[in-house]
Amino acid sequence: RARTAPVQNGAKPWDALREEATGCRRCPLWKPATQTVFGQGPLDAEIMVVGEQPGDQEDLAGEPFVGPAGKVFDEAMTAAGIERSRVYVTNAVKHFKFEPRGKRRIHAKPGTGEIDACRWWVEQERAILRPRMTIAMGATAGRSLLGRAVTVGRERGRPLALPGGGEGWLTVHPSYLLRLPDKAKADQEFAAFVHDLRSAAARL
Ligand code: URA
């Protein structure tokens, strides 16, 4: 499918969707955030990757996964032999949720109300791209895609049928790896993350 192929399934064109998302008011997170961070990548991607929400750097740049978690993600994708430039990358929640602490903005976990409000956008992105594989990184992305509470430890590493069609794959969020204080554990979890990414891509 070409990048500019007309959408045949009744979904809006991606550009129009992205434009509409800049003014999203579906939940209150838009107000303190700098901007909507929409998905990015080729529209004919076979793989879509869904994260949690933009972080501080993504909020400023307007692009997903450009900060510290993005660096881990890039390393894992390279280790898994998947080209990031061929993958569509997006987030379950499209505004940065944070708590101000002095001059810093500290990441705050999105609530179920925010995830469920923002689900509409992820569903639209999936309806347009119709990726063969959608990888959910972390429980927030899992909830967004499956429409129910998920536990990564219990459901990772196997194909999941997604509502509305397509196959999903659940794995950890790269930020989880950054939070592990023990180097041996972090290496082990990074390897498991890479294994999940590779296994998902092998389904294609
Ligand atoms: N973490 C995410 O889940 N998404 C980003 O875009 C950046 C950090």
Task: Explain how this protein is built.
This protein has 204 residues and is α/β, with parallel strands linked by helices. The protein has one domain (19-60, 68-202): 3-Layer(aba) Sandwich (Uracil-DNA Glycosylase, subunit E). The chain is built from 8 helices and 7 strands. It has helices spanning 14-21, 56-61, 68-80, 112-129, 139-146, 152-155, 174-179, 183-202; strands spanning 47-51, 88-91, 98-101, 104-107, 133-137, 160-161, 167-171. The strands form 2 sheets. It has a 5-stranded mixed beta sheet, with helices on both faces. It has a two-stranded antiparallel sheet with strand order 3-4. A hairpin with a 2-residue loop joins strand 3 and strand 4 (104-107). Helix 3 (68-80) packs across helix 8 (183-202) and helix 4 (112-129) packs across helix 5 (139-146). Bound molecules: uracil. Keywords: 4Fe-4S, DNA damage, DNA repair, Hydrolase, Iron, Iron-sulfur, Metal-binding. It comes from Methylorubrum rhodesianum. Belongs to the uracil-DNA glycosylase (UDG) superfamily. Type 4 (UDGa) family. This is Type-4 uracil-DNA glycosylase. Residues 38-198 form the Uracil-DNA glycosylase-like domain.
Strand content: 5-15%
CATH topology: Uracil-DNA Glycosylase, subunit E
Q: In this structure, how is the largest beta sheet organized?
A: 5 strands, mixed
Which homologous superfamily in CATH is the superfamily?
Uracil-DNA glycosylase-like domain
Number of domains: 1
Estimate percent helicity. Answer: 40-55%
CATH class category label: Alpha Beta
Judged by helices, strands and strand pairing, the structural class is alpha/beta
Order of helices and strands: HEHHEEEHEHHEEHH
- End-to-end separation in angstroms reads 15 Å
